[in-house]
Amino acid sequence: MKITELLKKDTIIIDLKATSKFEAIDELVNKLASSGRLNDKAKYKEAILMRESQSTTGIGEGIAIPHAKTAAVKTPAICFGKSEAGIDYDALDGQPSHLFFMIAASEGANNAHLETLSRLSTFLMDTAFRTKLLSAKTPDDVIRFIDAKEKQVEEEEKLERGNEMATKGKILAVTACPTGIAHTYMAADALKNKAKEMGIEIKVETNGSTGVKNKLTDEEIRDAVAIIVAADKKVDMDRFAGKHVIEVPVAAGIRKPEELLNRAVSQDAPLYKASGSSEKTEKSAGTGIYKHLMNGVSNMLPFVVGGGILIALAFAFGGIHAEGPIASTLMKIGGGTGAFFFIVPVLAGFIASSIADRPGFAPGMVGGYLAAQAGAGFLGGLIAGFLAGYVVLGLKKAFSGLPQQLEGIKPVLLYPLFGVMITGLIMVLVINDPVVFINKSLTGWLNGLSGTNAILLGLLLGGMMAVDMGGPINKAAFTFGLAAIASNNFGPHAAVMAGGMVPPLGIALATTFFKNKFTAAERESGLTNYIMGASFITEGAIPFAAADPVRVIASCIVGSALAGALTEAFGITLPAPHGGIFVIPLVNNPLLYLVAILIGSAVTAIMLGIWKKPVEKL
99: left (phi > 0), else alpha (psi -120 to 50), else beta? Predict the structure, then answer.
């Protein structure tokens, strides 16, 4: 269904009068009601507010798409509203929303509104299209701009289908990474660009930080030749039962799109079987374990970042002991009684839920809490998560023979009761004491490191941060640094943060001082890497690594390893787990820490400047 079949002139508001989120919802709902699209205005608004309570529909980039599927809708419709001044809509990026699309779907709409939502979201990611909508002066302008955009996309799809190299069927793909900030969309773009170059028709669903975008429909899955799943976290796989599915890490989508597409075209992949099947698929046990781990890490990171910045502010206001009313309050919110209190339980809970779905969450959280309280730390949390997940999987098999009448009590009684009890008993009686001993031994080893040993550790941790820039090796180093902070050893994480800042900063310097080695687009992206590097967002280097992996990754590893080694050689300690340049004042020697980061970044930049070939001028 086309957007313009649902959006008409009588459901368009060119100048919203609302100044707040709920005023905007009221104004859009009233427009739908006055145009005769609703059976019951109050119930429709209730459905809209219920959807907002789950998560905001302010998707960022100045856009909000409130939506609901309910019997209160008489005729499926879309209401468009535009606010020149912008409205605070609790958007995911924290920015005001200017463009509003309220989707009203009837109860029997068979999820058509979700497909429309997906298409709308895709269109609205186009900056030029958003600019046109913002310039609309009349309802006719809005209809014309949207209709033109749909026709443009249709023509592009026709051209791709008409290519002589096009396959007889469509390739589908899903991309997902733990944080959903960079890798997800980089992999999607790499696959789409390479598919266009090869004349292959493709659709990519992204599972990013703002949710699922461009969702694959049942019909598309049924007609697909093969499906590429480039993901480092759990995605909905059962829908692909009976299809040829290639499962790889998200990094492979970025670095090997041509290889993956060739495999998909030739159906070089096993048929996927839904959960519970005994037939083997291409996914290895190691890949599954990694995905479960990354599901825990990705959900833990907001607590690390939010709590870490608050802890850093506490130190900034009250010194290393966080003394004073402001500092102590910030430490209470972000530290061990606030955000940081949840890190290990959340890690364990989401690992367990990745393994056993929702029934695994409570046992995982309880196991993680018990590990944290006993002093078993991150290692105990990891063990608790996997233990709880597989315990619940065992319970599912054990209770599978119960009468059908008892099916309803499994998730509300049997799984939580026995899952929490078994996991808790094993953690308390078997796991915690040995892991506490290991943690104490590790702490003693870390505290005893000095001289060459400390420098080698910094070299290793710094280099690891640049190997895959947000991937499993990077996350392993980051998690080690967090564990060290939890043990009151602040040296290793200083090397980790320095190593993570170098790749984007080094690339930014290279694009500034060796302009002839980079395209105009790369030089422009290089400017944003100054900000990303300063903010400890290593993923800023990914586009450059994807375009020239050997030179870029090798140069970044050398620079990051050097920065990490220098950090340890200078005896730098960092009590904050995140924050980049903004927490440098908290280290014991800010000047030397900056020197270490700048030297590592300069080495990366110089290596790239010497190693890369000049860009050929057209």
Answer: beta
Distance of CA 462 to the CA centre of its chain: 23
Token pair in block for residue 472: 């499993």
Q: Tell me the per-residue pLDDT of 487-535, one tens digit each, with 9 for 90 and over.
A: 778 889 999 999 999 999 999 999 999 988 887 777 877 888 898 888 8
Q: What is the DSSP letter of 487?
A: T
- Give the alpha-carbon dihedral of 259, 265, 266, 272, to 10 degrees: 90
**Would you place residue 114 in the very low, low, confident or very high pLDDT band (cuts 50, 70, 90)?**
low
- Tell me how crowded residue 413 is: count the other CB atoms within 10 A of its CB: 11
- Look at residues 418, 295, 398 and name the one whose alpha carbon lies nearest to residue 349: 295
Chain CA centroid to CA 537, Å: 13
> Active site residue: 79, 113, 177, 578, which one?
177
Q: Say which residues have a Cβ less than 8 Å from residue 344's Cβ, sequence separation at least 6.
A: 368, 369, 371, 372, 377, 378, 380, 381
For residue 616, what are the contacts with CB-CB under 8 A and spacing of at least 6? none
Q: Which two tokens stand for residue 12?
A: 């368009």
The full length of the chain comes to 618
Contact 40, 111 (CB under 8 A): no
Alpha carbon distances (Å) from 422 to 114, 243, 346, 419: 41, 37, 19, 5
Query: How many Cβ atoms sit within 10 Å of the Cβ of residue 180?
Result: 18
Q: What local confidence, expressed as pLDDT, does residue 164 receive? A: 41
Mean model confidence pLDDT for the chain: 83
Read off φ and ψ for residue 615, nearest 5 degrees. -75, 130
What's the mean pLDDT in 137-144? 93
The number of beta carbons lying within 10 Å of the beta carbon of residue 79 is 26
Report the percentage of the chain scoring pLDDT > 90.
35
The pLDDT of residue 179 is 55
User: What stretch of H or E contains 84?
Assistant: strand 77-87
Active-site residue, 67 included = yes
d(CA 192, CA 212): 17
Question: CB–CB of 227/242 below 8 Å?
Answer: no
pTM: 0.52
* Pair of tokens at residue 578: 């995140």
- Count of CB atoms within 10 A of residue 500's CB? 33
Q: Strands, E, within 149-241: which ranges? A: 170-176, 202-208, 211-213, 224-231
Label residue 217 left, alpha or beta by phi (over 0 means left) and psi (-120 to 50 means alpha). beta
Q: Who has greater pLDDT, 304 or 585?
A: 585
At 21 the pLDDT is 92
> Rounded to an integer, what distance in angstroms lies between the CA atom of residue 399 and that of residue 351?
22
Read off the tokens for 403.
Answer: 């009468």
Mean pLDDT, range 298-318, rounded to an integer: 76
Specify whether 177 is catalytic.
yes
